[in-house]
Amino acid sequence: MRCSACCGPDGVIRILIMESVREGPSFIELARRRQLVDAAIETIAEVGLAKASNAAIAARAHVSPGLINYHFGSRQGLIEQMRATIQQRVDEAMEPIEADDSYVSALEGMLRRFATYCLDNLPAMLVLTQFTRHDQAGGATEDTERVKGLEELRSFITEGQRCGQFRPTDARLVASVLMNAMTDLPREIRDRGDTDRVVFERDWPLLFVNSIAVTEGANHHGDG
What we know:
The chain has helices spanning 8-21, 27-47, 54-61, 66-72, 75-94, 103-120, 122-133, 144-162, 171-192, 197-212. It is mainly α.
């Protein structure tokens, strides 16, 4: 129901002014963009990046291929937005619900949350690893997200060593090993299947936690 302030010529003018100064995409536009991003993820996961044409992505989303250029400027724009969206979703899933009481538990929790997200979102993670291994998004020759992740891991390991919770090994090497393991995990899940979640949600994190922790991971003596 429209209020009385919007009735008559003045109300119409007010509506037009509000529409003209509105900033950013509308709710419908955002929903359409999410639809196209999800369609791109599913298409690339199924046929690979090279074969994921605008037509194939649009067909999966049940829309016209022209909408990709309308919303993202080009196929490249959609691919870049898709990659950023996946990374954002991963980052949000990696945030702990509660503060960890040690660097050891923080590392274990981070790896466990990552494994859980991979198990529950395998197609998207398989797509993301394509960009981690090969810069197929175009533009920069160096994967800036990987470089950023390596530096964050290295700093985290170094801090844990200063607190006496991690063994005094090379922090850069540990960060590289962890990053490579996280990159490979989606393919490992795909190749083995995700029927036994314990293998990935408990055993996989503890492989790395117990290798560098002065004290063992919290779940080392758990069931199983």
